From TrEMBL:
<dbReference type="InterPro" id="IPR016162">
    <property type="entry name" value="Ald_DH_N"/>
</dbReference>
<dbReference type="InterPro" id="IPR010102">
    <property type="entry name" value="Succ_semiAld_DH"/>
</dbReference>
<dbReference type="InterPro" id="IPR050740">
    <property type="entry name" value="Aldehyde_DH_Superfamily"/>
</dbReference>
<dbReference type="InterPro" id="IPR016161">
    <property type="entry name" value="Ald_DH/histidinol_DH"/>
</dbReference>
<protein>
    <submittedName>
        <fullName>Succinate-semialdehyde dehydrogenase</fullName>
        <ecNumber>1.2.1.16</ecNumber>
    </submittedName>
</protein>
<dbReference type="InterPro" id="IPR015590">
    <property type="entry name" value="Aldehyde_DH_dom"/>
</dbReference>
<dbReference type="Pfam" id="PF00171">
    <property type="entry name" value="Aldedh"/>
</dbReference>
<keyword id="KW-0560">Oxidoreductase</keyword>
<comment type="similarity">
    <text>Belongs to the aldehyde dehydrogenase family.</text>
</comment>
<dbReference type="InterPro" id="IPR016163">
    <property type="entry name" value="Ald_DH_C"/>
</dbReference>
<dbReference type="InterPro" id="IPR016160">
    <property type="entry name" value="Ald_DH_CS_CYS"/>
</dbReference>
<dbReference type="GO" id="GO:0004777">
    <property type="term" value="F:succinate-semialdehyde dehydrogenase (NAD+) activity"/>
</dbReference>
<feature type="domain" description="Aldehyde dehydrogenase">
    <location>
        <begin position="13"/>
        <end position="473"/>
    </location>
</feature>
<dbReference type="GO" id="GO:0009450">
    <property type="term" value="P:gamma-aminobutyric acid catabolic process"/>
</dbReference>
Length: 477
């Protein structure tokens, strides 16, 4: 049986006149119905957050911390239920979903601790009869707009530091995956977070509601994860009222393998980076650069490992190791990229096409003989397709890797210490995985990109700063 969720505004669960379907991308079946918010609901949510802000900002940090700890414990207690719900609406294998929920809870735990560590300063003044005091205070109302590929992790990575800092929040999750958000907010309510501090808006009309959340002058900060195209619109909207903006946008990650690298480890790294979540992560590998001396051996080893590792199926089935893409548009893009590459001379080593007739499954794919004029060389696939390029020199591959508007994540495999330093420092990316295919797992690290991959950082103590204003007070006596 499917259930119908409600909006959460000012501490009350509110039904709407209309709802929209939430479907399982593995089967196309309806798994739930979500309340479909309109402009008046969004306005009410913003107003609730606006009115709740003074009291929440004045709540002692240790009390905010205690409530966040309760939220963390409730998420951990319900992690299996949340993971199953997440898999049903998003499609990723259950083990991946469980890992995401634990990671999501980790953000709440981390920021429960960081809430108590917002410190100011006293700075000596040049004048003996004056003192300088520096305070850090919460920004105000925050709009948090989250994506479908990590329906739990992207919520807590934004909402937890906002609450810890003393901000109030209006949360709008992706229309594909609203049910996980509903469950997390239910648990936040159970944790005792006061009315108006968290407000949840689900909608099938993200453009209208998103515009309100990014233009309303009562909102003082917007935090968004999604495409670069939408991120640019949000930045324009926010500029009208000079809001703070955190943007975690698209990526086009290079994965560079030098001829001194351990091929087995590099193949393991590629599989973990490229095919996790069916290639639907912003930091997953998009371009594989392999030194020409080892390219043939690397491609052979990678194709053999792909054949062993992956079984496509419904994420709730125990043997499944790769789920579906999120929708038909994602499936069409993966197909287009493969067909374009083959038409221009690439070879499909394995995979290369849709899997089955039901759901949006695409085979884990490896392409060789890929060149720069192919679409996959410049466009983010966001699917399980790994294109292999070859290179000869360090200088050449660094230039090619940096030749992108994106700068989120990059990967380098080498056993040469000097080269590892030169590449790590030379790559124009906010995150570098040096012999590490999963550099963004830790909640304590600063996550974010350069160039058109975004603004700001999330995670660790860095993740608190975007939600805090700095005020300086000059006192004469």
């Amino acid at each position: 049986m499917t259930t119908t969720s409600k909006l959460y505004i000012n501490g009350e669960w509110i039904a709407t006149d209309s709802t929209f379907e939430v479907t399982d991308p593995a089967t196309g079946q309806v798994v739930g119905h979500a309340a479909d918010a309109n402009a008046s609901h969004a306005d009410a949510a913003i107003e609730a957050a606006h009115r709740a802000f003074p009291a929440w900002a004045a709540t002692p940090a240790h009390k905010r911390s205690q409530m966040l700890y309760k939220w963390y414990n409730l998420i951990m207690e319900q992690r299996n239920e949340i993971a199953a719900l997440l898999t049903s609406e998003m499609g990723k294998p259950l083990m991946e979903a469980k890992g995401e929920v634990i990671n999501a809870a980790g953000f709440v735990q981390w920021y429960a601790e960081e809430a108590k560590r917002v410190h100011g300063e006293t700075i000596p003044h040049l004048e003996p009869t004056k003192r300088i005091t520096v305070l850090k205070q919460p920004v105000g109302v925050v709009s948090a707009i989250t994506p479908w590929n990590f329906p739990a992790g992207m919520i807590t990575r934004k909402v937890a530091p906002a609450l810890a800092a003393g901000c109030t929040v209006v949360l709008k999750p992706a229309e594909q995956t609203p049910l996980t958000a509903v469950r997390l907010v239910e648990l936040a309510e159970q944790a005792g977070i006061p009315a108006g501090v968290i407000n949840l808006i689900t909608t099938s009309n993200p453009a209208e509601i998103g515009t309100m959340l990014t233009t309303d002058k009562r909102v003082r900060k917007v935090t968004f994860t999604g495409s670069t195209e939408v991120g640019k619109l949000i930045a324009k909207n926010a500029a009208e009222t000079v809001k703070r903006v955190s943007l975690e946008l698209g990526g086009h990650a290079p994965f560079i393998v030098f001829d001194d690298a351990d091929i087995k480890k590099a193949v393991f790294g590629l599989i973990n980076s490229k095919y996790r979540n069916a290639g639907q992560t912003c930091i997953c590998t998009n371009r594989v650069y392999v030194h020409k001396n080892i390219a043939e051996d690397f491609v052979k080893a990678a194709s053999e490992e792909i054949a062993k590792q992956f079984k496509l199926g419904h994420g709730l089935e125990k043997e499944t190791t790769m789920g579906p893409l999120i929708d038909q548009q994602a499936l069409d893009k993966a197909t287009l990229h493969v067909e374009d590459a083959v038409a221009k001379g690439a070879t499909v080593v394995c995979g290369g096409k849709r899997h089955g007739e039901q759901g949006f499954f695409f085979e884990p794919t490896l392409l060789s003989g890929v060149t720069e004029e192919m679409r996959i060389a410049t466009e983010e696939t966001f699917g399980p397709v790994a294109p292999v390029f070859t290179f000869e020199t360090e200088e050449d591959v660094l230039e090619r890797a940096n030749n992108s508007d994106y700068g989120l994540a990059a990967y380098v495999y080498t056993n040469d210490l000097g080269r590892s330093i030169r590449m790590s420092e030379g790559l124009q990316y906010g995150i570098v995985g040096l012999n590490d295919p999963m550099p963004a797992n830790a909640v304590q690290a600063p996550f974010g990109g350069m160039k058109q991959s975004g603004l700001g950082r999330e995670g660790g103590h860095y993740g608190m700063e975007p939600f805090l204003e700095i005020k300086y007070i000059s006192t004469g006596f």
